[in-house]
Amino acid sequence: MFQKEQAVSRLIEILVEYIPNLKGQIEDFSKDYFAQRALLRGLMNMHSEKNPLPEEFFALQDELLQQELSEKQLTDVSSLKPCLINKNVYVYSGDITAFKADAVVNSAEPNLLGCKQAGHNCPDNALHSAAGLQLRFECASLMQGRDAPAGCAIATGAYNLPYGIVIHVVGPKVTFEVTQDDIANLEKCYKGALTIAKERGCKSIVFTPIATGTLGFSMQKAAKVAVDTVLSFLKDPANDLKVIFFVPQERDCIIYDNLLTPHEEKKGDLHPFFNINLF
Q1: Which pLDDT score is estimated for 264?
Q2: What is the pLDDT of residues 83-124, one digit of tens each?
């Protein structure tokens, strides 16, 4: 019978060999299972793509991640309510690693290697952590040390995620204020991901927010580009794709709800401070 505690302990032993200067700190780490599991995630986040790992690591890692996946209550599009403006568009706020769909779009670093900040709560980190280190190694193999340009979209396997594929997009980085080039590159991210999904025969695709946070787009501006681009794509009857916008913070759902509600249906009783149309 598979023992998660033993697997986590062994996986930590393997990874720490690549960062011997941390051995002392790791040995002093709490032996509580959840603390050890968080430590393992952090070590996986930090692991360099330049250091190949033994088959033992991947076998144990996959068994652990598959066990954890089986313990999650997965959500899929059938349990969501479609938006009023288009029956193929949905908004989801929850665990990005616990949604089942054909494709997930990850707002990636230009090198596609995933967030390397130990335990960070961004979607990029969450997806790489739940997929397993094979995802980082595949991205490294594809990129060969190069950076992808803003606006590009690249597909890889999803490994231990509940998705068929991961589509990595590189959002534009705003330097001072959002420019037309920034908007054009953000549109390219969405168009590229939708095109890949269609070419791969996907029926459903989940978008994490692209170019928000440290890249400089406000959630409002990024969501407007996202919604406009997706709705334009779906105007073609041949593009019969279920599109789910993943919103990390529930408070941001109102932004998408407002953009995805027909004008005559929009509520007029919002306090002006929270009226999205003012921004």
Answers
A1: 63
A2: 999 999 999 999 999 999 999 999 999 999 999 999 999 999
Q: How far, in Å, CA of 20 to CA of 120, rounded? A: 22
16 pLDDT band (50/70/90 cuts)?
Answer: very high
Amino acid (1-letter code) at residue 60 = L
The pLDDT of 149-162, averaged and rounded, is 98
Contacts of 215 (CB under 8 A, 6+ apart): 107, 171, 172, 173, 174
Pairing mode, strands 153-157 and 163-169 = antiparallel
Distance CA 258, CA 243 (A): 17
pTM of the model: 0.92
> Looking at per-residue confidence, does 26 or 42 come out higher?
42
- Residue 230: which of 206, 249, 250, 252 has the closest Cα? 206
CB proximity list for 179: less than 8 A, separation 6 or greater: none
Q: Is 159 left (phi over 0), alpha (psi -120 to 50) or beta?
A: left
Q: Note the Cα 16 to chain centre separation in Å.
A: 26
Nearest to 94, CA basis, from 74, 114, 117: 74
Which SS3 state, helix, strand or coil, does residue 155 take?
Answer: strand
Q: What is the mean pLDDT of residues 202-206?
A: 98
Helix (H, G, I), strand (E, B) or coil at 206: strand
For residues 161 and 23, give the distance between their C-alpha atoms in angstroms, rounded to a whole number: 30
- Indicate the burial class of 226 (C-beta count within 10 angstroms; 0-12, 13-18, 19 or more): buried
> 4-16 and 33-46 helices cross at what angle (nearest 10)?
40
